[in-house]
Design goal:
Shape: flat
Number of strands: 0
Order of helices and strands: HHHH
Number of helices: 4
Number of domains: 1
Radius of gyration: 14 Å
């Protein structure tokens, strides 16, 4: 098991929990988008830990790309407020 991937997965889980908690308290959708993005990042770490990333590189890259795009979208929407 890769300790960096395990640490990243744990950090992602904490960030997801905190971002959804802040979203429910402040009703700011930016935190919702951040939470969704980090769910996808966590999924990519799970893929690495289960060796799925090596088997399906395209899917792994797609998950990471959608995560980054979700984060960018949420921050862009906040900028327009």
């Amino acid at each position: 098991m890769d300790p960096v991937s395990i640490m990243g997965l744990i950090a992602d889980i904490v960030i997801v929990a905190l971002s959804f908690a802040v979203h429910s308290k402040k009703k700011n959708k930016t935190f919702y988008y951040i939470g969704v993005a980090y769910i996808l990042f966590a999924l990519s770490y799970i893929m690495v830990l289960s060796n799925l990333a090596a088997m399906s590189r395209e899917t792994y890259l797609l998950v990471r790309a959608v995560a980054y795009l979700t984060m960018i979208f949420g921050l862009y929407k906040e900028l327009g407020r």
